[in-house]
Structures are given as C-alpha cells and as structure tokens.
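agent> Task received from the user: take the single chain below, predict its 3D structure, and emit structure tokens. No templates, no multimer pairing.
agent> Plan: (1) validate residues, (2) run structure prediction, (3) serialize to tokens, (4) report one or two observations.
agent> Step 1 OK, no nonstandard residues flagged.
tool_call: predict_structure(input=
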Amino acid sequence: MTTEQSDAPGGRTGSASRPATGDTRPDATPDAAGGSDTPARAGGDGADGAGADKAAPNGRADTGGKARSDGNAGTDKIGPDSSAEPGKAEIAEAGTDGKAGTDGKAETHGEAEAGKPGTGDQAGTGDEDGKQPGDPWTAFGPAPDPVLTRPRRAVRAVGRFVVHEWTLAAVASLALAVLMTWPTLRYPRYTLPQDYWDPSLQSWQLAWSGHILLTDPGQLWSSNTFFPEPWSFAFSDTLLGYAPAGMIGVGPEDALLRYNIMFVLAHALATFGAYALARQLGAGRIGGAVAGASYAYAPWLLAQAGHLHIISNGGIPLALAMLARGHGWSLRHGYRPRRRHAGWAFAGWLVAAWQLSLGFGIGLPFAYLLAGVVLVSAVVWFVRRRRVKRPFGRRLFLADLLGGLVFAAVGAALAVPYFKVAELHPNAARTLGEIQLYSPPASGFFTAPAESRIWGELHEGARAALPWHPEMTLLPGFVLYALAAGGLFFSVWRVRHRLFLLAGVLVTMALAMGTRFLDGRFTYVPLFEHLPGWNGLRTPGRMMLWTTLLLGLLAAGAVTAFCARVRELAAERVPPWPGPWLRLATLVPLLLVVMEGLNVTPHPVVPRQPAVMRTVDGPMLVLPSSQNLDQPVMLWSTDRFQRMVNGGSGFTPHSQAQVREATVGFPDFGSVDYLRRLGVKNVVVLRDRLGGTPWEGMLDRPVDGLGVTREEVGDAVVYRL
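)
tool_result: status=success, residues=721
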C-alpha cells in the first residue's frame, strides 16, 4: 500500500485515527484543509475496515496499517520526529503475509501477530534472529508476582493463621484464664481451687472415665465407688466429655494436675465462646471481648469455683455461635442466605452434644433451649416455604437433621443411667421443699460471694442475711449491669432486639429465683413438674448463667456503638492526635469488667494419699466415712481403682447410709457380719481422721473371736475380714 507522509510537523498516523465505519468510499471527501479522508477496508476474513488519518495541509496523509488479531485494521499516528520515509508507511502490527495494495486496501492472509513491526509494502518479521524485540517500557511496569515454593507457601499460611482474629482471640482467652485463675497453676499437683471436697470428686470422675474407657468401657456406669451399687457413676454429673484428658496419667497427683488444667481451660473456652457468639451476632471486637470476659468471670461464678461442671459452660455460647454462623444469621444483619454454611451448623450440633456430655446441671436447660429453637425454625420454614424457595437449603437441612439426631442420641444415651438411678433411688429426686431451700431472694442479684476481691468484704453483711449464701450470691457485676442498661438506649442492636434481650434477662432472673418469685407458680414450678429431668436440678440460682450471657450481649451492643462513635470523633478532629487516646478509652469498659472478676479464691493443699491405698485390695471400706470425707478417698483410689463402699455425690444411697450406721461399733460381731454379707474384705481406718467422728474410739476395741486380723500400715490400720 502506498501512502503519503505529511511534511508538516503535525503529520501523524496511528492511534488517533478515526475508526472506520466499515463502508468503503471510492472517492475521498475533501476537508477544509484541502486534504482527504481515505477510508481503507482491510481485506481478509472478518475485517471490518481500516481507519483513516487526518490530512496534512499539503494534502498528503500518513497512514500506518495496523492489523489486529480480531480482524480489524487501524492506522497509527506518527509523531513529528518519525523516521518514516515519504511514500512508505511504518506499520506497527501486521500479519506475516500481509501486503499493502495500491488501492489502499490491506490484504491479510493469516492471523495478525501483535508486536511485529514492518515497513514498506511488506511487513517485517522482527530482528535478524527472528525474535520479537522486548518492550522497553516494561521496566516501568509493576513487578510480576513471585512464584512461591511450597515452603514459602507454608510459611505464609502459618503467618496468616498466627495473626488471624480467632487465633489471637484464643490465645488472649487462654492468657487471661491463667491470670484470672492464678494461683491454680502454681502448684497444680498439690492444690485445688476453693476446697478439696467436690473438686476431689470431680478429679476422680475425670480419672475414672479415662481409665475405664481404656480398660473396660462396658463398666463405665458401674464405678469403683459406692460398692455394691450399680449405675454409681451417674450419681452426679459425670464430666464425661473430658474423658480423653482422663486417659493421660495415673494416680492422685496426675488427677489433680488434670483437674487444674481443665479448670483453666474451661475459663478460656467460656471467654472464647461468648466472644465468638457476640462477634457472630454483629458486635465489634471490644464489644465481643466485654461479652466474653463478663460471661467467664462474673462475680457470682466465683462461688462455683469448686464445681467444674458449672464452670465448664463455654460450649453453650460457642455452639450457638456456630449454629448462627451456619444458618447465615446475626442479630445485627438478620438472615443472609448467602452466608449459610452447612459445615458450621453441623459442627455447632457436635459442640452442643459435647457440652451436654459434661453434665445435665447446665446442659438440660441448654437442651430445652435448642429444642425451642428447632421448633421455631420449623414454624419459620412452614411459613416461608411458599414465599421463599428452600429458605434453609437442602445441605443445611441435612446438616441440621444429622446434627440434631447426634445431639438427641447423645442426650438419650446419657439420660438412661440417670433414669435408672431415679428408679432405684427415689431419694435422688429433688422436692419442692429442697428447691425452696436453695431459691435465692432478689437481694442475691446484688450480692457478691466471699471470693470476690472487689466486693467480698463489702458484702459480708448482705451474705449473712441469705439462707444459703454459696448458692444465693448471684451478682453478675455492677459494671455489667451498667453497660447492659446503657445498651437499652445506645446500641448497635435494633430496638426490638434490645427488648428481646431484656425480656430474656427478666425471665431467666425469675427462673433463677426458683420458688421465691410468686412462689414459682408461673415460672419454676411448671418446669419442675412437667419437663422430664428438671426435678433433678437442685439449685435454681444456676439459671443466672443465661442472665449473664444476655446481659453480656446487651453490653456488647453498647460498647460496639461507643467504639464506632469514638472512631468517628477521632476522624473528625484536626489535628487527629487525640485519636489514639480516644481509642484507648474504648478499653475502659473491658478493663472494668475484668477488674470486677478478680478473686481471692483459696487453693488448699489436698491431703496426701495414704500409703495403704496403694496396697489394699477391694472391696474395701475406709473409715471414718461421710459425704465430705469420702470425696478425697475417691481421689486416692485413682492408682488402682479398687472397689470401695465410700463415695460422695449429690445424694446418699440407702445402702451407704446403712453401712455407716452399722459400722459405728466396728469391730464387733454385728458390724463384721454385716460387712461380710455385703462382700467387703478389708476395712481401712485412718488414724488421723478419727477425731470428732462416731468412730473415734474404735482402735481401742479388741478383735478376739471375730476371725479378723489387724495390721498397721503407716498411719492406717487395716482389718482383714
């Protein structure tokens, strides 16, 4: 193709050309400058047309044929310093077989290759070696992404995991638990938090479940204690979910270490679970931290430090958070179907089942709550099934179905032994009289236990007015009360959600009062009389767990709104230097909540295991015997788990009461005969524990004519029957 190049400095060819319309005009139309626009139509398959250049004042136009891979040929502009010779065009891009025709049409016989310049009538093929020259402008472009090797990818993945929010939340929860429960881990093999009675029992429970599941799982519920009673492991909450930890270590010292570690981890899980729930519902990070700290370290829980099955409540908010995440629902944003995830929902059901396996003391109300949620969800599905196609989704429905079945199966399997115990031991069931004894008055909601570092001494008079203050000091924290009250008026939650949370607080408080609120006629008594298993709950005040969680969510809404407002104020300030101080102010609510949870919980040294417990076989009886004295004996049996009459639980079986009564005169003919008929072979008397008990003078009694041998082993005396 022959073209003319303008002699004027402004003569250009190339990218500024007007695109052709696709119509070929044989005659050029003169423009005002005396030149002509000559649209050229590119030949070849799929060519739409060639662009034309603006004419120079001398009537000669510069054109640069540009053959594109999509079949369009264009013209390029050439600057004033172009080296193109007259009569020749510099072609930016052309096919290898493209030839310029004399009629202005560019014919292409192949696919154009971008970036191969050509000159004259025929496109060039590049440099002498046939290689495409590099673009000098690439040096100024962005650097290409590096290709990561497997080790570098692994390091990057680990780095992301380390700085992830949930990793940091878990580490912070664990560190806070160590500090807030100190000195639990100072001497973990020798001390127990609060006292060594119920914690000794629960240390034995952890050890027994791990031991028996490794040796003879079929005998799980027939423990080595309360001989010869069957189903004795179900005489109290079992903490069965901690059985994997019980498989590690043997003996009393390992049992104490195990208990103390689980005690700290239970606090950490409670903090993490409540944080996760608040975050899933829409709270900010600091708001979630306030919810987590207030739930795990509420002052009223300090009185429960000796009850690991009550402290182990972190699975409740964690399961609720997972279920909400799986269903794409949050309190702040409502239902978002795109965020549904069947895996999270199924995991939530598994965590709920694990929480139930720790005990029915707090697990039973949780189970009834989940049953209510399932019922509401079924109603929602029925209402929406015509308006919204598959409102829950097939995979999510299957996850809920399978997860719910697992949860129900675990609950049913755990309930069977307790129903057996209730059938064999009618005295194990609670009565309304006992509920009345443990029901706290309204003043209990503003009274802290003696273990509170901040309020313990100040509330001494208020505790003295309570009939049974260990279960009636129910203060969740004055800071929490204040933050929750503020959350009713200033919050990220919608008004109706705040009212729902407030209603939940009031309802759970009424239930926590047992028969003290309107005699319980419309609150606790109907549940006690009609819900299966509810009559096994002894202390209504533990419903305060739900009150604390709901108050924490109200507080999280207020703190989140406060933090958002602080960020706005910090951004508006000029200069912005006060911003960091305002942001630090958002930590004040969290610090106040943590300070109110500080404790002075005692950590007494557990009595050392007598050497005789490592040598004497069972079935055996250790004297003296009582509810409190038997619990350390259970701990001492974790070396060999020999069968023994001794045992402590929430109730005393008739057979055990009869043994204690029959052996007051031991050793005499009647008591020895009774024990032989029962199957007891050895009686161990702990000399240093006899003082002040009904068995105080028994070591002075003779054994002549009874067929009994007596042997002293250390500080103990062994009678072999």
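agent> Step 4: summary for the user.
The radius of gyration is 41 Å.
agent> Done.
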